[in-house]
Specification:
The chain has a nine-stranded mixed β-sheet with strand order 5-4-1-8-9-10-11-12-13, sandwiched between helices. Strands 3-2-6-7 form a four-stranded mixed β-sheet. Helix 1 (28-36) runs parallel beside helix 8 (232-244) and helix 8 (232-244) runs antiparallel to helix 9. With 298 residues, the chain is α/β, with parallel strands linked by helices. It contains ten helices and 13 strands. The two termini are 25 Å apart. The longest helix is centred in the C-terminal third of the chain and has 13 residues, at 232-244. It has a single domain, classed as Ribokinase (UDP-N-acetylmuramoyl-L-alanine:D-glutamate ligase, 3-Layer(aba) Sandwich), CATH 3.40.1190. Strand 12 and strand 13 (214-218) form a beta hairpin.
Length: 298
């Protein structure tokens, strides 16, 4: 079993109508790797500054996450600040400080290069060739994206969709890429661009899973109060890929089991803005013994 996650490890400042949190630990690589750690022993590739808390690195290690690919550089850690409205699906980015992430050129450790699954989490698609050129042929290649790359790197993004096996996107991203307003049409159009599987995250409504010749929907766990969905989609991807790392491929039964939520306790971290120490609870997948952040965002 081997899953490599190439993504950001960051600080988030969260502003909501119910309260704020300053510089809590976040990032796609963080949430994804923690969620995956309930099913496999993920490997993370990223960069942080010397201001990143050692206790968080210790937490990641305690979950069996391989940190050889996470570099600590002189300077400050990537920092994102965003504001949520009462509808948590409406979010505004207030500030993005790339800091050490600005000139990040991932160097893949030698023992990562034969990994079975590689996940490119929110990377600039122009950097994919550099990253993937360091791996031997992965059995599964997965990616997601953000609106910034859809708006500014569209041609490269479309090319990358032609070579991945699994693509994660939310409903806005799917519509922007395909021009289709109907999500069923958008999902089918994305499969037509190359991926064997497309997972469309629909927030509190769950997710749609598209393959070649099939589509099915997954309900999110009901949650009456959604406050902070930051990291929910990353946790969903981590839990999904972590589960698949235990399976031989993309058989239909394994895809369904990876995507469908399991029973969980009463409390979900989405119902509060997390403190830094809560990040493990925030990323806990539904398929593991505990609550999950991805339940809230698909």
């Amino acid at each position: 079993m081997s899953l490599v996650i190439v993504g950001s490890v960051a600080f988030d400042t969260i502003r909501t109508p119910w309260g704020d949190r300053e510089r809590i630990v976040g990032g796609s690589g963080t949430y994804c790797s923690l969620a995956a750690s309930y099913f496999t022993r993920p490997r993370i590739v990223g960069v942080v500054g010397r201001d990143f808390p050692r206790k968080t690195l210790a937490l990641l290690k305690s979950r069996g996450i391989d940190l050889e690919g996470l570099k600590v550089k002189a300077g400050k850690t990537f920092h994102w600040e965003g504001k949520y409205e009462e509808d948590p699906n409406r979010r505004t980015t207030l500030r993005t400080e790339l800091n050490v992430f600005a000139d990040f050129r991932p160097q893949i450790p030698a023992h990562y290069k034969g990994s079975r699954i590689v996940y490119l989490a929110n990377l600039n698609p122009e950097h994919h060739d550099f990253v993937l050129g360091q791996f031997k042929k992965p059995a599964l290649l997965a990616m997601d994206t953000i609106r910034l790359w859809i708006d500014t790197k569209r041609d490269v993004l479309l090319k990358e969709l032609g070579r991945v096996d699994i693509f994660f996107a939310n409903d806005e991203e799917a519509r922007l890429i395909t021009g289709e307003m109907n999500l069923i049409s958008a999902g089918k159009a994305l499969v037509g661009l190359g991926p064997s599987l497309v997972l469309l995250k629909k927030g509190e409504h769950g997710a749609l899973v598209f393959g070649r010749g099939f589509v099915f929907g997954v309900l999110a766990h009901p949650c009456e109060q959604v406050i902070d969905p930051t990291g929910a989609g990353d946790s969903f991807a981590g839990g999904f890929l972590g589960y698949l790392d235990k399976t031989p491929g993309l058989a239909g039964k394994d895809v369904r089991r990876a995507a469908v939520p399991r029973p969980r306790p009463d409390r979900g971290a989405i119902q509060a803005i997390p403190q830094a120490v809560d990040i493990l609870e925030c990323a806990r997948p539904l398929g593991s013994p505990g609550a999950a952040r991805e339940e809230r965002n698909g």
